[in-house]
């Protein structure tokens, strides 16, 4: 309850010693002049975020004061419609940061561990498309620093369950807490492939009152994992592509994992999230993981609907991505909006 509320989570994380991006208190029914003053103190550009939000909903970027109030009204309206809660808060917006998250497990006996980090910077409109672990950005020293600080914070807060603590890294390599997802995330398989830890199983054990089955010393990242979210969307304009799958043949081979309920003659409904499969590739190093992912995408057959596979093939082969030099504005930089 505490960490699922973004505004309260920021306060708790600050008390636990993790750095946060400058931001405001909750904004609900506040005078325009008060909001404008808050924004001036934070500085532009800034981002409006839904307090109960997720998945990019209720988020709006504001670059100039004259657009603040109008954009705030739109964000609150979207937040109320999506989450039944119109509360939002303001936060400094970092240009083209890296989005890195840390997978954690905590039990009711006061123990907590982390399972390394995931790089989630390939995004479109705050929706992640590709994730990988370990992050190409982090050095071993920075990885240890991040993990230690997160575990210390989780123990102080008393977090119980699986969860993900998310950060933005600026151009100087400084990291800032942005939110915590108090659940299993779509991209958890990349961590499972690199650590051998079944995150869902651990979450169930924790809910049953058991102690963590591993200590921090037991956690070793082996090789490199990459995940592509296969969505039922047109890869050119991202319009949803519901319909019947007329052919479905997932790839296999060493280091390849596919999480999906799709099959031939399955009808993809327009009423739900467009994610229809997760393709994960693991290798001894990032280069091998990239090569395996590239081949797996080439051999992944889904017909009858459009999918994001052609886009992900393009991203995986892009020189900038292959060098690990990308931020959250990567897709815009290569002409994908």
Task: Describe the secondary-structure layout.
Blueprint: H1 6-15, H2 32-42, E1 46-50, E2 60-62, H3 68-83, E3 88-92, E4 98-106, E5 112-124, E6 127-133, H4 140-157, E7 161-169, E8 175-181, H5 188-195, H6 199-207, E9 224-231, E10 243-244, E11 247-249, E12 256-260, E13 267-268, E14 275-283, H7 286-299, E15 301-303, H8 309-317, H9 319-322, H10 330-333
Antiparallel strand pairs: 1-2, 1-3, 4-5, 4-7, 5-6, 6-9, 7-8, 9-14, 10-13, 11-15, 12-14
Helix pairs in contact: 7-8
Describe the structure.
This protein is an alpha+beta fold and 337 residues long. It is 31% helix and 27% strand. The protein is built from 10 helices and 15 strands. It has helices at residues 6-15, 32-42, 68-83, 140-157, 188-195, 199-207, 286-299, 309-317, 319-322, 330-333; strands spanning 46-50, 60-62, 88-92, 98-106, 112-124, 127-133, 161-169, 175-181, 224-231, 243-244, 247-249, 256-260, 267-268, 275-283, 301-303. The protein has an 8-stranded antiparallel beta sheet, with helices on both faces. It has a 3-stranded antiparallel beta sheet with strand order 2-1-3. A hairpin with a 5-residue loop joins β4 (98-106) and β5. α7 runs antiparallel to α8. The mean pLDDT is 94.
* Overall shape: globular
What is the terminal-to-terminal distance? Answer: 34 Å
Helix content, binned percent: 25-40%
The main sheet orders its strands as 8-7-4-5-6-9-14-12
Number of helical segments with 4 or more residues: 10
- Class per helix and strand makeup: alpha+beta
Strand fraction equals 25-35%
Give a count of the beta strands, DSSP E runs of length 2 or more. 15
Poorly predicted spans:
none
Measured on Cα atoms, how large is the radius of gyration? Answer: 20 Å
Mean pLDDT, nearest integer? 94
Instruction: Please trace the helix and strand order, writing H or E for each element.
Output: HHEEHEEEEHEEHHEEEEEEHEHHH
Tell me the major beta sheet.
Answer: 8 strands, antiparallel
């Amino acid at each position: 309850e505490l960490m699922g509320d973004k505004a309260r989570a920021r306060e708790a994380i600050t008390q636990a010693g993790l750095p946060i991006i400058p931001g405001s208190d909750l904004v609900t029914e506040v005078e325009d002049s008060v909001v404008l003053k808050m924004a001036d103190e934070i500085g532009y550009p800034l981002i409006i975020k839904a307090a109960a939000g997720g998945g990019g909903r209720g988020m709006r970027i504001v670059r100039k004061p004259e657009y603040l109030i109008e954009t705030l009204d739109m964000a609150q309206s979207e937040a109320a419609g999506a989450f039944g809660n119109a509360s939002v808060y303001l936060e400094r917006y970092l240009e083209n940061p890296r989005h890195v998250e840390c997978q954690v497990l905590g039990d009711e006996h006061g123990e907590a561990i982390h399972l390394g980090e995931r790089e989630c910077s390939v995004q479109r409109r705050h929706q992640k498309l590709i994730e990988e672990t370990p992050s190409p950005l982090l050095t071993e020293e920075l990885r240890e620093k991040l993990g230690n600080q997160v575990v210390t914070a989780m123990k102080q807060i008393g977090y119980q369950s699986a969860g993900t603590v998310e950060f933005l890294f600026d151009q100087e390599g400084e990291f800032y807490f942005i939110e915590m997802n108090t659940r299993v995330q779509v991209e958890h398989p990349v961590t499972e492939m690199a650590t051998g830890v079944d995150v869902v199983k651990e979450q169930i054990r924790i809910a049953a009152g058991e102690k963590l089955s591993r200590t921090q010393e037991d956690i070793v990242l082996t090789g490199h994992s990459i995940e592509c979210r296969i969505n039922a969307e047109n890869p050119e304009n991202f319009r949803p592509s519901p319909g019947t799958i007329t052919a479905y043949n997932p790839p296999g081979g060493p280091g390849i994992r596919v999480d999906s309920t799709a099959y031939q003659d399955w009808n993809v409904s327009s009423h739900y999230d467009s994610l229809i499969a997760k393709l994960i590739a693991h290798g001894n190093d990032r280069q091998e993981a990239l090569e395996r992912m590239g081949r797996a995408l080439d051999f992944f057959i889904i017909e009858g609907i459009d999918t994001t596979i052609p886009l992900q093939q393009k991203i995986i082969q892009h020189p900038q991505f292959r060098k690990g030099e990308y931020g959250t504005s990567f897709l815009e930089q290569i002409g994908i909006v």
